[in-house]
C-alpha cells in the first residue's frame, strides 16, 4: 500500500510540474509548496466542472457579475482606505501567504478570509463587505495595491480548490501594468474583471507612474459532483482559514500566522547559512527534505 501511495504521489508531482508551458527548474519544483499539495490539487483539477486553463471566462461564474456592476462602490471605499493609509503591508510576521510580496511594495487590506468579514473591514468599508456577503462562492477578498515600479516574481499559489478573480478599481489602464499567467499577459483596466487559475506559474508588474488597486478574490472552484464539492470546501476551510491575517488589532489571526514568526526564524537562519556557504546550505536543505520523506514513508 505504501508503494501505491508513493507512486500516486510521484505521479501527481510530475503532473503538477509539467502542467502548463512555464515551469520551475526541476530542483526548484521539488522544494516548492505545490509539490506537497500536488495530490490534493490533482483531485481538484480532475473533478473541476470549469476549464482548467490558465485564464477562464468569467461567464462561468454569473454570480460575480454583481461585483462588476458595483465596481465604483468598491473603488470609492478602496480609495478612501488608501487616503487613510489603511491599505498597507503587515508590520510583523503574520501574513504567511503574502509576506514575500511586501518587500516589492505590494500592500493589502483584507475584507474577508475563508470566514466572516474582518471587523476592521465591516467598520471601514461596509458597502463592499455587504456586496461580498451576498455571494457565497467568494471565500476571500481584499483590496490589493501594486505601486509604480512594483514587480511580483514568478510563483504559484499552493491550493487549487479556489480560482483567482481580479477586478480593476484604480489602475493605470496601461499594458505596462499587467499579470502574466503561464506566459499569457493580461493588463488590468478600471471596471474590468479577469479570472485565472493561480496554481499556474504567474508574475505581475507595474511599469507605470501610477499605483494599481484591484479587488482580489478567491472564488470556490466548482466541482462536478456534490461529494467532491464538499471535500474541496472542507480542505479549503482547514488549510486556508489557518492563513487568516489581520488588518488591525481585533481581526482574527489564523494558526499558521500565529506560528509564522517562529517558522520565519528558521527561514532567516537558512538565509544566513546560504550567504555563508551555498554548498553547505544545499546539502543541509536536501538532507532535511530527504530525512522527512524517508520518515513519512517508513512510518
From TrEMBL:
It holds the Pfam family Asp_Arg_Hydrox. GO terms for molecular function: dioxygenase activity. Residues 69-222 form the Aspartyl/asparaginy/proline hydroxylase domain. The lineage of its organism: Bacteria, Pseudomonadati, Pseudomonadota, Betaproteobacteria, Burkholderiales. It comes from Burkholderia cenocepacia. Belongs to the aspartyl/asparaginyl beta-hydroxylase family. PANTHER family: ASPARTATE BETA-HYDROXYLASE DOMAIN CONTAINING 2 (PTHR46332:SF5), ASPARTATE BETA-HYDROXYLASE DOMAIN-CONTAINING PROTEIN 2 (PTHR46332). It comes from the Bacteria. This is Aspartyl/Asparaginyl beta-hydroxylase family protein. Keywords: Dioxygenase, Oxidoreductase. InterPro entries: Asp/Arg/Pro-Hydrxlase, Asp/Asn_beta-hydroxylase, IPNS-like_sf, Lipid_A_LpxO-like.
Amino acid at each position: 500500500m505504501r508503494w501505491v501511495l508513493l507512486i500516486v504521489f510521484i505521479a501527481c508531482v510530475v503532473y503538477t510540474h509539467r502542467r502548463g508551458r512555464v515551469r520551475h527548474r526541476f530542483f526548484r519544483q521539488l522544494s516548492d509548496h505545490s509539490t506537497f499539495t500536488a495530490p490534493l490539487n490533482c483531485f481538484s483539477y480532475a473533478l473541476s466542472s470549469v476549464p482548467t486553463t490558465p485564464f477562464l471566462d468569467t461567464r462561468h461564474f454569473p454570480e460575480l457579475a454583481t461585483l462588476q456592476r458595483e465596481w465604483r462602490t468598491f473603488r470609492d471605499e478602496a480609495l478612501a482606505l488608501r487616503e487613510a493609509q489603511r491599505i498597507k503591508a503587515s508590520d510583523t510576521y503574520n501574513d504567511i501567504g503574502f509576506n514575500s510580496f511586501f518587500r516589492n511594495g505590494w500592500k493589502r487590506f483584507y475584507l474577508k478570509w475563508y470566514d466572516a468579514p474582518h471587523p476592521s473591514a465591516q467598520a471601514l468599508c461596509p458597502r463592499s463587505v455587504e456586496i461580498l456577503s451576498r455571494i457565497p462562492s467568494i471565500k476571500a477578498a481584499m483590496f490589493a495595491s501594486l505601486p509604480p515600479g512594483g514587480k511580483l516574481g514568478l510563483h504559484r499559489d499552493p491550493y487549487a480548490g479556489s480560482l483567482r478573480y481580479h477586478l480593476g478599481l484604480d489602475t493605470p489602464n496601461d499594458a505596462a501594468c499587467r499579470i502574466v499567467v503561464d506566459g499569457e499577459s493580461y493588463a488590468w483596466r478600471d471596471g474590468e474583471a479577469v479570472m485565472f487559475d493561480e496554481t499556474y506559474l504567474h508574475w505581475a508588474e507595474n511599469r507605470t507612474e501610477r499605483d494599481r488597486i484591484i479587488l482580489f478574490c478567491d472564488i470556490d472552484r466548482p466541482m462536478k459532483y456534490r461529494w467532491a464539492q464538499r471535500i474541496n470546501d472542507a480542505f479549503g476551510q482547514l488549510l486556508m482559514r489557518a492563513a487568516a491575517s489581520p488588518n488591525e488589532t481585533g481581526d482574527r489571526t489564523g494558526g499558521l500566522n500565529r506560528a509564522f514568526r517562529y517558522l520565519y526564524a528558521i527561514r532567516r537562519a537558512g538565509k544566513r547559512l546560504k550567504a555563508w556557504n551555498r554548498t553547505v546550505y544545499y546539502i543541509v536543505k536536501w538532507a532535511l527534505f530527504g530525512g522527512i520523506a524517508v520518515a513519512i514513508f517508513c512510518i
